Amino acid sequence: MMADAVDPALVPHRRLSTGALLPAIGIGTFGSDHVPHEAVAEAIEYAAAVGYRHFDCASVYGNERHLGRSFERMFQNGLKREELWVTSKLWNDKHGEPEVIASCEQSLADLRLDYLDLYLVHWPFPNHHPPHCDVNERNPNAVPYIHENYMRTWRKMEELVDRGLVRHVGTSNMTIPKMKLLLRDARIRPAANEMELHPHFQQPEFFTYLRENRIEPIGYSPLGSPGRPERDRTPEDSSPIEDPVIREIAERLGSHPAAVCIQWAVQRGQTPIPFSTNHRNILANLQSVVGEPLTADDMRAIAEIDRNCRLIKGQVFLWKDNQSWEDLWDLNGEITPP
Ligand SMILES: NC(=O)c1ccc[n+]([C@@H]2O[C@H](COP(=O)([O-])OP(=O)(O)OC[C@H]3O[C@@H](n4cnc5c(N)ncnc54)[C@H](OP(=O)(O)O)[C@@H]3O)[C@@H](O)[C@H]2O)c1
Fold first, then answer.
1. Residue 242 · residue 259 · CB < 8 Å
2. Domains of the chain: residue spans and CATH
């Protein structure tokens, strides 16, 4: 371990419905189109050396082969597989029954692991789009959410648990009505749901629903994804790390707005997975969860700056013309009809 590393035993953990322990902060691995795969692979090795034990991967990020070499080196340096929590995700063009298991096996081969701790259905839509495509691009074969089809995919996800290839299965980018149907029909319940969560997008209703149902909310873009490409930005977007309330708390604590966002997330009860390839930021993000906690007043002040500002809107998954991205998110509490 490095001199200023964080002892992984001091990092808060979540007890999942299965009894397993999930480190309450992970490192993201989505370099989008501007961070080379090699840089992300180097970042996770550094992250492991300073005490991270939770890694959020996905086949669509295109870098699992690079990350696999990093995991291998971590083991060569003495880490044991069971000390790590590794998540990967099934991409949208692999929802078909014959493809789920093959796709998971491919991620395992690329990551050089023989099991995953968590495997997520990345989006509840089987609507593929090529990496780096424009937000206005539409797949002519795109379809709405069809629960029967999702359950066919889910049955194969359950089979992955039965076969011992994954310890837990979970969802991502879901909504309450979709989750209700899944909980009604699942044999193996989702252990976690990965979703956008930061001080400007707190999703209080869904967050509470998940906690009540013992599904761990894993929060992506916990800093408001400041590095996302221009094409993924709209004029309404706001930035939690520039919020005056967050900045004031950071100033008082002598820390950084990013650290405050991460502390808030962990103390609220979600598991943030900040991305970084900058050593100083990687370390600071982890140190923030073992430092002095935010006060109850800080937590209340941050609860009040929610702007319901979704940054990752998912436009490319829309299935017909003249729709808006809100249609993906079942805003009136019912699944948007086809
Ligand atoms: N399930 C899904 O559909 C989904 C969707 C989106 C993301 N994700 C996952 O969530 C992860 C995180 O989300 P994200 O990458 O969108 O956004 P994020 O973690 O909110 O933001 C990452 C950006 O913040 C910067 N940063 C990190 N720590 C910092 C610090 N301490 N101070 C200042 N800047 C800092 C990074 O730059 P530097 O490298 O310069 O530090 C990077 O540009 C992804 O990598 C991916 O694993 C999942």
1. no
2. 8-329 (3.20.20.100)
